[in-house]
Amino acid sequence: MTSLPGGENAEEYVASLIACQICNVALNRSVDDATGEIIYLHPMELANDPPEHLPRPIVVEPTIAQIVCDFCSDQHVVYGIHTSPIAAVVGPFRQNFGDEWHACAECGTSVSVGDLKGLRARRRRAAPKLGPEADAFATLLNREVVAGFRPPLEVSPLGRWPAAALRCRPCRRFVMVFIPC
Q1: Would you give the end-to-end CA distance of the chain in angstroms?
Q2: 3-state class of 82 per DSSP?
Q3: Which of 104, 112, 120, 170 is an S-S bond match for 74, by CB 3.0 to 4.6 Å?
Q4: What is the number of other CB atoms lying within 10 angstroms of the CB of residue 63?
Q5: Helices 105-112 and 132-148: angle between axes, nearest 10 degrees
Q6: Does residue 15 surpass a pLDDT of 60?
């Protein structure tokens, strides 16, 4: 757990994307209700799978940070998902998850059709293995996302896909598309 340099002015960074300076992963933001301190965590810290270093939070452009699916950690983000605001209390920390989520094709589709079982199955198949408590927490969080989903799914501009040229059958011209790695 690390607080953002700037201490009291850290609230100014809420609208920006905060990532770890070491690994470039977007960080989760929490607030210690007892002290009011803003804390930044690597996403896997909630899964009892701490990274090899403490977070070093910095403000980054969203296109620079490594954005992964918020549900299964797939690196091929396709959709932006909007929900009602979601927050949770974990120990002494209040985590505001917000109302914007990133999803791969499979997880985004599961959220949009309300398929909680499909979302859970994808997480268990593709994401790093979670302990029982973290798995239960992730399931509750997924339930809140599905319940609070506000259509439509939007194509995310933050997904990282390589470009490929394909020939259009009707006109025989090449078109640029993005395909999974």
Answers
A1: 33
A2: strand
A3: 104
A4: 10
A5: 60
A6: no
